[in-house]
Specification:
The protein is α+β, with helices and mostly antiparallel strands. The protein contains 11 helices and 20 strands. The chain crosses the membrane at residues 331-352, 373-394, 406-424.
């Protein structure tokens, strides 16, 4: 799924972007209100005090500006406050190491593998911070989770097919227990939205593959699928946090976090916080919705047009899962078709009871004698189409019509054309009804 947008007046000196990253102060994430208030400020140097940046950080900012990195912060065209630096894999690594940012070890390893890559997959990388939705269990065993917004760090390539696949195990980062759950599984019951995308920790959540089918890609995508190879790309892993630390595992024994992280008393009070996919629904007037769930680790390709040098354009590469609300099916179209077939049988019996030879067209014409029934058929179908038109339109536009809905539309088409044509025949006087009924 691809969307396009941008951020006007957001591009500025990289030291401003680096200063805004110091909000994290070694933590894995920060609260949204603090982040949004500071990062929403424009990229104008006079608005900031850079004394908190080390000489190494200031030198890095100048180096990034000289060597083609693009740094931006502010409110983009989707209304989200973001802070992002885009450059080579080595430049992004330098930002992480110089500022001491707490970044998922798997993403750091991806950058390390991308440095000096020689397989032709030449891509820039971005480090992005933006508010994300998290869900947390209010009561163990209850799927009605609480929600809150917070900001963490995500790193991604311009081209998804260039992301190395990194296995997360103890050789990458160790684990330690954060909370003993005494036989309780905090993720035993979860909202459906938490079962749609892959996560970076082990748990009882359904296992979802990171590999997704790819369309046209700039660089060769990974192939899988055996006899018929299918190009795939690797989507990012959603995460969970406990006490401000990234979670490694959730089971009936406890909640385990990265062994290098010290928990925060402030974030510990929120319990287990799980990345939530973003839902952008399309709803009918009756409240029935087609849910578009997106992997909330948004990734995009940055560009700057010559005619708009102060605007950072973004082509968003997103991973989406779509499904519709379940609604009871209306069987009126099937009943109308059943009425038509029944009246056809009755009409055929009435004609044959005359004990004379008749043409098939005359049998059809005889059925048209009962003009009142044709009006009833037409009225029922028109009522159904008017009442359910918004549902059919949403289903047709989004491609989520079920087999039952398609069968309903087929019955509507048949009944509508049948009754309408018969009414026209009756009105035109094409058939001599009295001669047949004599």
């Amino acid at each position: 799924m691809t969307m396009s947008g941008g951020c006007s007046g957001c591009i500025g000196p990289c030291k401003i972007t680096l200063l805004k990253y110091t909000l994290f102060n070694g933590s894995a994430f920060v609260s949204s209100p603090v982040f949004n208030a500071f990062v929403a400020l424009g990229p104008v140097e006079s608005l900031y005090d850079f004394t908190s940046l080390s000489p190494e950080a200031l030198a890095l900012g100048e180096s990034l500006d000289r060597n083609g990195a693009v740094c931006q912060s502010g409110i983009n065209e989707w209304g989200a406050t973001h802070n992002v630096a885009t450059g080579t894999a080595q430049q992004i690594l330098d930002i992480i190491l110089t500022l001491g940012l707490s970044v998922a070890p798997q993403m750091v390893r991806e950058l390390e593998l991308a440095v000096g890559r020689t397989d032709g997959c030449d891509t820039r990388w971005s480090i992005l911070t933006v508010s994300r939705l998290f869900q947390f269990p209010s009561t163990v065993g209850d799927a009605n989770f609480g929600k809150l917004s917070a900001v963490d760090i995500n790193i991604f390539p311009d081209y998804t097919e260039c992301r190395p696949t990194v296995k997360i195990d103890d050789s990458l980062i160790g684990t330690k227990v954060a909370l003993l759950t005494k036989g309780e599984d905090f993720l035993r019951a979860v909202p459906d939205s938490l079962t749609l995308f892959p996560y970076s920790f082990s748990s009882s959540l359904p296992l979802v593959s990171r590999q997704v089918p790819a369309g046209v890609t700039k660089y060769p995508a990974t192939s899988s699928g055996g006899y018929q190879e299918v190009p795939t790309v690797t989507q990012p892993l959603l995460r969970a946090y406990f006490g401000g630390c990234r979670v490694r595992e959730v089971n009936t024994t406890g909640i385990f976090i990265e062994d290098t992280c010290e928990m925060s008393a402030h974030w510990e009070s929120y319990g287990l916080m799980v990345h939530s996919p973003d839902d952008l629904p399309l709803c009918s007037t009756g409240g029935v919705c087609i849910h578009n769930y997106f992997n909330s680790l948004w990734e995009w390709l940055n560009y700057v047009s010559e005619d708009q040098p102060d605007r950072a354009g973004m082509v968003v590469n997103s991973f989406r899962i779509r499904y519709g609300d379940t609604v009871p099916i209306d069987i009126l179209p099937a009943l109308v078709v059943a009425q038509i077939l029944l009246m056809g049988i009755v009409s055929f019996y009435q004609v044959m009871s005359h004990k004379r030879s008749v043409l098939l067209t005359q049998i059809w014409a005889y059925r048209c004698q009962n003009g009142r029934m044709q009006v009833v058929y037409l009225a029922q179908i028109v009522y159904h189409l008017v009442f359910y038109s918004d549902l059919y339109m949403i289903g047709l536009v989004t491609g989520t019509l079920t087999g039952e809905s398609i069968a309903n539309l087929t019955c509507c088409t048949f009944a509508l054309s049948y009754s309408f044509i018969n009414l026209l025949k009756a009105r035109s006087g094409e058939h001599n009804w009295t001669a047949i009924s004599a």
